[in-house]
Amino acid sequence: MSHEHVSYLELLARGAAAEAYDRPVLLARASGAGPEALAELEEAKQLALRVRAELEGRRRREAELSALFATAHDLAGLRDLDAVLRAIVQRARSLLGTEVAYLSLNDPAAGDTYMRVTEGSVSARFQQLRLGMGEGLGGLVAQTARPYVTDDYFDDARFQHTRTIDTAVRDEGLVAILGVPLSLGSQVIGVLFAADRRARVFEREQVALLGSFAAHAAVAIDTANLLAETRSALAELERANDIIREHSGVIERASEVHDRLSELVLHGGGVHDVTRAVSEVLGGTVEFTEAGAGSARRPGGHAVREGDDWVAAVSAGGETLGALVLRGQPDLDPVDQRTLERAALVTSLLLLARRSAGEAEQRVRGELLDDLLDAPDRDRRLLRERAARLRADSEAPHVVLAARADRTGATPDAGREGADRRRLWSAASHLAATRRGLASARDGGTVLLLPLGPGETAAELARQTAADLGGTLREPVTVGASAPVRAPLDHPDRVAAAYGEARRCLDALRLLRRSGRGAAAEDLGFLGLLLADGRDVDGFVDRTVGQVVAYDRRRGTELIRTLDAYFASGMSPARTKDELHVHVNTVAQRLERVGRLLGPDWQSPERALEIQLALRLHALSDAVGER
């Protein structure tokens, strides 16, 4: 290698400027080098410059990526947008000393404006108000991009009054209103308001202060949008980086998975162990789906691509047992495809080895539960012995659960429904075995008898069971639960009654269009009173309005009486104050306290109906107690 070529390497090593690469050519020309030597040196210079440009490009991309990570880190401390806007509205209300503050945003798709955040509002109609573009004070602010103020809204003719807006404003009891625009550049995206339930004059400084809060709100919205875009870009870059890193060692991973799968077979591993090992090696998520989930149409022997997923059929002796599905790796090279196929073969061997033993245990568990449901006069001692052989928990309180698969968007088919029931029974039997309980196929679905864990409720167990079974079947499973049954092996007659209650809860969930969920009677509000074998009226009242009752008793307030009057007045604060003979501000303050005790959705139709029933039951209970 010539001295001049070495000079170019030194220039690259120390990161010299582009001008320095002309020096070796100039020195060679000055020393009398021939045309061929100069041409060769010129070619070497151009090659070195291309290498230098490539290195600079790599350093620049690395700096850009570092800057992107730093930006995401700086923005990580920002609270979510709702929290930021809520804080702005709360501060505006506090510093301007108004009774109500609220923020509306434009909805370009619907062509109107809706309430995003309210503070101090007690009227459900006002909180759910949607305004047409150009209507009311807010419409004028949005049209002109200028603040507007009125000391008496209903006597102000500058605004386009509509029945919907005026009714909502009157229901809230508002009189004086100030609105300022939320602007991003030249575009108005919403309006920030401060309002009082009495006539007042807003000073120029207060208008400017609310405008400052509106600017902060607009910046928060813009920042939140930019943050979401940055996080999305960062996630894509991280995913691309992971794929590149994993593909660099594809041959080594193939060897690793072969060794790991062999070890799993030798040491009695299960299907979950196989999917976990292959997930780690291939860098995606591998799941096993049973034959009923659609794997029967897939060809055996080879991994095939379906959308962004890769599927390898698990089959033995001409029977399709299921499939391994790889997600998160749409571009799979041939070596990794063979790795997925090898894992499918190992999975089929494990399934065949465990099928006979598993089916036998499932039948035994089902027979024991069938005896508890159908023959409660069986010998109690023999029932306990059979449960002990199955390692079933006989001491803890148990819950009876009725489960049914709810396939969505599918045409009813007797063959498919039968396959779904078998898959549900298999999944329920496995769950029962892991939780030391029992399971059986019954009434077109599955019934389970599971012990309650420490501190666990029947409702929690129902929700977890629905999630576990739905995750296994990869389709919605609805679960209804009974109240806890103590010592079910000593009192088999209680199990049959509990199953009836669980079936009623299941039917209620499906009628209420809550398919795919789990619940006990206590989750269904007043409907649960009708479904449960024990009518826990006091428990329903306590769960629904107990906090308000307790607050009245501690403070000597009249929140329950105010609630009664509020619902009797059609949920209108203005009419409620006439019923109670108090100022509208007093009604607003009481209802605001109720909202803190019962939660922000207490005026939704479903919650409001339950609260009204609880109020009547509470009043009836007090009347009975006074006799």
Explain how this protein is built.
- By secondary structure, this protein is an alpha+beta fold.
- It is 58% helix and 15% strand.
- It is built from 21 helices and 15 strands.
- The strands form three sheets. It has a six-stranded antiparallel β-sheet, sandwiched between helices. Strands 12-13-11-14-15 form a five-stranded mixed β-sheet. The chain has a four-stranded antiparallel β-sheet with strand order 7-10-9-8, with helices on one face.
- Strand 1 and strand 2 (112-119) form a beta hairpin.
- The protein is flat.
- It starts with a helix and ends with a helix.
- Residues 63-76 have low confidence and may be disordered.
Helix/strand/pairing class, anyone?
A: alpha+beta
Shape: flat
Largest sheet: 6 strands, antiparallel
**Which whole number gives the mean pLDDT?**
78
> Number of DSSP strands?
15
Spans with pLDDT under 50 lasting ≥5 residues?
63-76
Taking the alpha carbons of the first and last residues, their distance comes to: 112 Å
What Rg is obtained from the alpha carbons, in whole angstroms? 35 Å
Q: What's the helical proportion of residues?
A: 55-70%
Biggest sheet strand order reads: 3-2-1-6-5-4
Q: How much strand?
A: 15-25%
Work out the helix count: 21
Task: Offer a few descriptive terms.
627 residues, alpha+beta, single chain, five-stranded mixed beta sheet, 15% strand
